[in-house]
Design a protein that fits this description.
Immunoglobulin-like; 5-stranded mixed β-sheet; 3-stranded antiparallel β-sheet; 3 helices
Length: 235
């Protein structure tokens, strides 16, 4: 009776020891496979630098079935700073690998973790770390795959300052051209005695003509008189 009780007890203890050994042996091997970052359309292979957070997509592999790819299962995803100490976004049970495919994605990290987009890294270089871990094993390095990436926003377009127009001077008033003022003629003759006004130019010419003509007549008369006296013998 006593032996019948002891034998099953020994079998149970042995089974428990074997199960524990199998679990320890399984966890002793690191998670195979790898993860990579790319664009959501998969056009970049293992990209490292991106301009927007949601441009970063997670991809698992390798796709080669002969390689040590990711095993079937359910996985958690997280985004942290490079050290892994500051959690910036977490998604639980968001990736499923089945049928021995060994790969998934690409899927934008903004669709895998919350908040979306994930928080900004405190790293001055804009470096983040992406995590893919077996469900319930987040941040246990032995059961996770990680990949660093950088988000470097594109430089904003340079703003060309608008030149400030200089104050314009008021329009110059048009100055009419100077008109020459006629200089009044100064009479060449002084007023005659008695208050008579001086003669104009015609009077002066007439006076000159009269004097010349009178002188010529007197000269002719003088010559005639001298001729006549000589002819009469009168001296």
């Amino acid at each position: 009776m006593r032996g019948k009780i002891i034998l099953p007890l020994i079998a149970i203890i042995a089974l428990a020891i074997v199960s524990t050994f199998q679990i320890s042996t399984a966890s002793a091997h690191p998670l195979p496979g790898a993860i990579f970052t790319t664009l959501p359309d998969g056009s970049v292979v293992n990209g490292n630098i991106y301009t927007e957070k949601c441009d970063v997509a997670l991809n698992g592999g390798p796709r080669n079935p002969q390689s040590h790819h990711l095993p079937d299962g359910v996985y958690d995803v997280a985004v942290t700073d490079p050290s892994g100490k500051i959690k910036l976004g977490i998604g639980e049970d968001v990736v499923t690998i089945a049928n021995g495919r060994g790969t998934f994605g690409p899927i934008s990290l903004c669709k895998l973790v919350g908040p979306s987009p994930y928080d900004t890294t405190p790293n001055p270089g804009g470096v983040y770390k992406a995590w893919l871990c077996e469900s319930g094993q987040l941040f246990v390095h032995h059961d996770c795959k990680t990949d660093n990436f950088k988000v470097r926003p594109s430089a904003p377009p340079s703003v060309v300052p608008t030149p400030i127009p200089s104050p314009t001077s008021p329009p110059t008033a048009l100055i009419p051209p100077a008109v020459a003022t006629p200089t009044p003629e100064v009479p060449t003759q002084l007023p005659k005695s008695g208050g008579e006004p001086p003669s104009n130019g015609n009077d002066v010419l007439g006076t000159k003509f009269f004097l010349v003509a009178g002188g010529s007549i007197l000269s002719l008369l003088g010559g005639f008189v001298a001729w006549r006296r000589k002819s009469l013998g009168v001296f």
